[in-house]
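Listing 4. Sequential folding, example run.
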Amino acid sequence: MTTGKSIRWRMLAIIGLGVVALTLNWFDVAAAFPLIGSEFHVGLGSQSYLISLFIVGYGLAHIPGGMLATTIGMKRTLVAGLTLQGLASLSSGLSYSYLQLEFSRAIGGIGGSIFIVAAFGAIIVWFQDSEVTLALGIGSGVTFSAGAAFALYIWIYLQDGTSWHDSLVLAAVLELVVAAATALWYRVPDGAPALAGSRFERRALAASVARRDLWIYGLALLGGYGAYFTASQLFTTYATTQRHFDPSLGGLLSALILLAGVPASALGGHLADRSTNLKAIIVGSLMACTLVLILIPYVPAIALWALGMGFGFFLLFGFMAWFSVPARICKIRPEYVGTSAGLMLTLAAVGGFFVPIIFGHLVEHTSFTFGWEFLAVITFAFALIGLLGRNPVDDTTGATILVPREEAIAGSRTRSAS
């Protein structure tokens, strides 16, 4: 397989641009929560559904998105996901009923899911020979954090200068432009025709998603994943209503939670590439997140800056090792990497759906303090599941690379002849 260094880094840049567009159109709604609540007369409990509905679409489509990438190819799937989310975001910006906004968010999540599964698979196949976790850190973690932070802070000024409707429409147009650029310039590695689309093999898919470590590590992130999306999108509300931050500073605080993921993703990817103890990185990072969450309601307001950035740093630091599980531990065949990563993301997305809803209703009926304690407990509890997972050096039970069907048949014939 030809994977020239200059080519693969250019492909990484294209994928990263798509991730920025994805997260911009994911988090820009959170920046508009006060204006949306005022226009549609809804409170925090109802607004938390906008977070969860996106995650519902995002979680449901991961495995189908991986199957689609196998069938029609990675490039077409990348473009399809960006286009669908862009159109749904356009509909969100044009929404003049809360029901339309909720529906558009769910469809946007489906588009984002289809894109991100293909994006992770694309990064892995371009960098599978070396630096795969570092590339995942840059192409997904760094760009994810940067796009989300841009949405939560810079986009506020665009909203103030226009309206929340116009700001969402503009973000949607940018994503559609990125989709067109991806269609023009992205390509799959030479010598890998299956990545341009191939016959779907149920047996190979079943072998991929049956790997126990995909399920263990997917469930381990469930609590932390939900806590991350809850905290990053509702921290501004907490800071302004409970700690009396100026709204602009509250927005900056949420943005910094996500920006902390930029160095964390690069550093976490670099370390994970050189470590065989991925379990310690994943579980240890989630334990650190637990500690941060439980401290939030009890520290002075000035300390929220450090805690917010600490939470974003630790979650993304461990996330890079977490996302290398299909390639590093399970050794999944390249065209099924997207589906395998999709399974892990689907399991984690269960938390992304339920946790914000539970948090919103707990806060409305009790207090923010109880809400933060809930996030800490659920992050800790599911992180313990990760202790059952294996490291790359532990895998002595047949976690070998799944070979293409034709190679397997040829190998069988060779053994029969001998």
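-- end of first protein; second protein begins --
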Amino acid sequence: MTPDIGLILGIDGVATGSIYVLVGLGLVLIFSVTRVVFVPFGDIVAFSALTLASLQLGRMPGTVYLVATLAVVACVVVSIHHWRRREPHRIGWGLLGYGVVPLVPAVIAWLFAGASLPNWAQIPLAIALVVPIAPLIERIALRPLADASVLLLLIVSVALTFALSGLGLLFFGPEGFRTEPLTNEVFRFGSVIVTSQTLLMVATAVVFSLLLFLFFEHTLAGKALRATAVNRVGARIVGIHPGSTGTLAFLLASLLGAISGILIGPVTTLYYDSGFIIGLKAFVGAIIGGLVSYPGTAIGAILIGLLESFASFWSSSFKEVIVFSVLIPVLLWRSLSLEQTDEEDAEVEG
């Protein structure tokens, strides 16, 4: 391997890792607030790219039917919930939030189906279509189990992955798609060529990581999310509603997933089930950060991107094996660190 090849692989790894950063941050955000390892998160990334591809081809995005289905089910769940709690006056607000609002971009996409929309309109519409998916799933399947064990929540999350994969096949079909590049500029640094798409991926990851930091540090909603992540019972005592913070966490994470899909769509062909592998690789990065540290997750995601890039050069057939094998030493390290902490605590108590 020459230095030039190593540099090219490094740049490609950082760009891929930038996508894993956004997905990993979304996973940690959801887990820290709701204790849910949201396995279907990668599907949102894939659905975002497939939605934009459908709009660019002048087709009706399958996301319209997916969101409509989820919105109808969510409205039924919300209505039953408030009726059982003898709060009929809150049913209207629930129908507005989980029925009307998510369907607005779906109606817009349906009205403009077959029309040639400009690129600046296609991207926001694709994001708006995809963002409601995670909050709707949270309200339908996860919020009723909010007080369940982490293991049960994980089992439900895995089941949701298979359900979304089946719905993706139904609404998007088995064909793979690649979206048009967001930018076509090419920059040359010596003997190394860097595309503007790569720079855009890295810059977006940096910008949204910074925005997420500012949100948690300087906004009331961000501090409410942090409080819920630290102590759900304590947050409820001081007036913070865990259900609302959970919905907000899923909404923000879904936005990160939608943007990730827009960015990764031009550089790889995505299918209805491609999101599972993307989410799993980002999950490895999140595990490196302990599923609690945002900076640790970002560093871990970049490392996974670099490892994947160099593994593809060494042996493309075994790149997935190499990447996922990182989980073993990381989990061992985490396990040993946890045991050491427990022993220290026991010594202090003694």
